Amino acid sequence: MDRPVLFDIDGTLVDSTEAVTTVWREVALRHGVDADAILRVCHGRRDEDVVPEFFPEESVATVVGQIAELELGSADRVRPISGAVDVLDRLSGHRWAAVTSGSRSLMTARLRGAGLPVPAVLVAAEDVRAGKPDPEGYLLAARRLQVDVTSCVVVEDSPAGVAAGKAAGAVVVGLASTHHPDALADADVVIEQLAALLGVVQKLPSRQP
Predict the structure, then answer these.
(1) So which residues are the catalytic ones?
(2) DSSP element (H, E) containing 7
(3) Per-residue model confidence as pLDDT tens digits over 108-149
(4) What percentage of the chain's residues is helix, strand, coil (to nearest 5)?
(5) Whole-angstrom Cα distance, residue 7 to residue 10?
(6) Does residue 66 share a domain with residue 141?
(7) Rg of the Cα trace of the chain?
(8) Which one of 7, 140, 141, 193 is least enclosed by Cβ atoms within 10 Å?
(9) Residue 206 lies in a domain
(10) In this structure, is residue 60 part of a structural domain?
């Protein structure tokens, strides 16, 4: 498989839905904020981008810190997305990377907690100035892999992530694990199971001119 693959992590390689939901509900309860409203828009985005939308400015830093602490404490409450172990095993020795809206420490802990390898190139929240849907993370991952981003396939489960991959110039595969396929309609192709990825990748056109 010659094409570089750039994966999101939460919802794409790791099923962290239980942990994410529990943490946001706990923090929302502490501060009297509507947790359901947060959960409708937080997936695939950095905590530091979501928190200011729902919490007073003077408490943003405190809330972000509380989320980080709770998330690290629940990093073992995750499991691999169905098909992730096999897909990454088949990509061993090939060029692949991860681009996440989470911190490096949390995402490393979640990958390990799910029994998945940590890639040599992992672009985390602290590595970029702007989170998804901004393309910065995917552009940076391609540079670190020393490849043209238009030769890459991005795998994402959220609308924000799909938008980031498209804006970067990559071909995007939407994985309907956390969102209805209709919400991922801007992807070049949508799959229901990660196990289908490598077969689909071989057929995708490149965006290279």
Answers:
(1) 8, 10
(2) strand 5-7
(3) 999 999 999 999 999 999 999 999 999 999 999 999 999 999
(4) 50, 10, 40
(5) 9
(6) no
(7) 16
(8) 193
(9) no
(10) yes
